[in-house]
Write a structure and sequence with these properties.
This protein is α/β, with parallel strands linked by helices and 192 residues long. Helix content is 49%, strand content 12%. It has a five-stranded parallel β-sheet. Strand 1, helix 1 and strand 2 form a beta-alpha-beta unit. Helix 7 packs across helix 9. The two termini are 22 Å apart.
Length: 192
Amino acid sequence: AVSVDNPSSPSGEAAIDNIKMFGFDDAPPVLLAYHDCAGPQVEAVLPKIDILHVEHPAHKSIFVGHEQAVAEYIKRRGMFAVGVVSNSASGVAELAKTCGMIFDPDIVRSQGMAGYDSVVDWIRENQRQAADAVVKQYVDFVTMIAAMTGVQQELVARLCYISTTCGLGSMKHEGMQDVVYDLVDTASHAIR
């Protein structure tokens, strides 16, 4: 797969042009993937790619007004990589909090990266509960896309897989990186 991450691109066309510049458009069997933190130009990108990496499923707004293009993308078996596991320590801490971890975010933040050790330990001890919350976000995304496009939910589900949000490699808490990878793995197994 060839992935393009060009958040400063004024349109999806610029990203596709970058792919073509390297000669990948004629090289079988390459899958073209597109990721843009701010949200892609759906109409321009979907007809030309195989995988769209979507940030946290709450970013529904990138699809509004593009329902038909998304439905056509799905019909030709375009896939979605759904970034449902946060790449930030504070995002993972928020996930732990929604799952029932009791902590004071201000105290955790005031301790710097070491303050997140308790979050890492809690998620490791409550892996299944945290993974269930990730699965719920995935199901919410699948349900939203199916409702928005009129495509059967089962087909949408077969064309989606979960991932982290972008930038995981820049996370400064190494234990948190491991927890995020483990959450993606556990949630993936639960979805299958």
